[in-house]
Amino acid sequence: MESKLGVKLFYWWYAICGRWQIISLMYMLVGISLGVWLILRRRKLHRLVRDLDDYKENISRFKVKIIDGDVSSFCTGCMKPVIVIPSRLENAQLQTIVKHEETHIMLGHLWIQLLWEIIRVLLWPNVLLHIGERYLKRDLEDVCDAVTMQRNDIGAIQYGEILLDNAKRLSGIRGISGAGSGLSFSWDDNYKVLQKRLGRIMQHRKYNRSVIVMGTLLSIVLVLSMIIGIKTISYARYNPMNLTGIFSEEKMEILAYDRDESIVTYDDEFIYIDCAELKHQCPEIVNEEKDIYFSVGGYYKFPGMGGGSDIGWVNAQTIADNDGVIKTEKYSGIDFWNRIIMWL
Q1: What is the pLDDT of residues 18-70, one digit of tens each?
Q2: Alpha-carbon gap, residue 101 to 148, rounded angstroms
Q3: What is this structure's pTM?
Q4: Which of 163, 236, 241, 260 could form a disulfide with 298 if both were Cys (CB 3.0 to 4.6 A apart)?
C-alpha cells in the first residue's frame, strides 16, 4: 500500500464500490443468496437424516442411520456427526464402509467442507472456488482411503473391490438431494476419476506415523514462527485517525477537514469548537440553517478501510452567534462490529 502499485492492486475494488454502490449491493445480494441456498441444502439433508431409523447394532462410536434403496453411504453434521448406510449393504462390506465414514469425521473433513462453503459465499466471484469444491472432495476421499486402510489394516485389493462393487451398484442411480453437503464413500463422479482413485488405492503403501507426527509438529512450529515474524514487522492492528470532519446537514456534504485541531478538540465526553476559527476557515458556514455535524477520532486498518468516529452536532445559528469556544456532547461511534474489525 506504500507504493502506486500497491494502491492499484488493493484499492481498485474499494474505489469501484464507493463510486457505484449498486455493485456493493449486488455483491452482497448474490453472496446472501448463495449462503441461503447452501444452508437450505444442508437443512434438507439434515431433515432427511433425522427421520431415518437408527441402525440396531452398535457398530460405531458415532450415530448410524439406515436408509432404504441403493444410495452411497455418507456422513454429515459437524456438531453431531451421523453416518448413513444403505439397507442393502452387504455385511462383509459394512465395517469397512463405516470405518471410512468415521475417518472422515475424525480427520475434520466435514469442518473443512463447511469452511470451504463459507469461503465460497464470501468470495463468490472467484469461479475457481466453485469449481474447486469437486476437487476438494476428491482429495479428501484420497486422504480418507489411505488413513482408513492404514488404521484398520485393510488390504488394498479388499478395499478397492468394496469401492468398485459399490460404484457398480450405484451406476446410473441418482443420488440423494442435498447430499453434496456431506461426504460419500462412492459418490457421484465420473469413471476416469474412479479409475484414478482405484489406482491410488492399489499403489498405497503404509506410511510411518512417527514421520507424520513430526511433520505435523514441524508445520505447527513453522506456522507459529511465521505468525510471530509477521506480527514483528507488521503495522499495528489499527491506527488512530487524527482527523475531524465538519459536515453540513443542509448541503449533505463535508464543508471542511480539521487536521491540526485548530478548530475542533475533544475529550472523553465533549467536543469543543472554536467558532471564530471555524468561521475564519469556512466562512460559508454562517449561511447554514440546519445542524453542523462534527466527526472526531476513529481508526483505519489501511487507507480507505476504517470508521468508528465519534460524533457531535451543533445548530448552525449557534456557531454564527458565537466567537468563542462552545462544547457539545460526544457520542461514541465504536460498536460491536467496529471492535471486531479493530481486533482482526
Answers
A1: 778 888 889 999 999 999 999 999 999 999 999 999 998 888 999 999 988 77
A2: 9
A3: 0.68
A4: 241
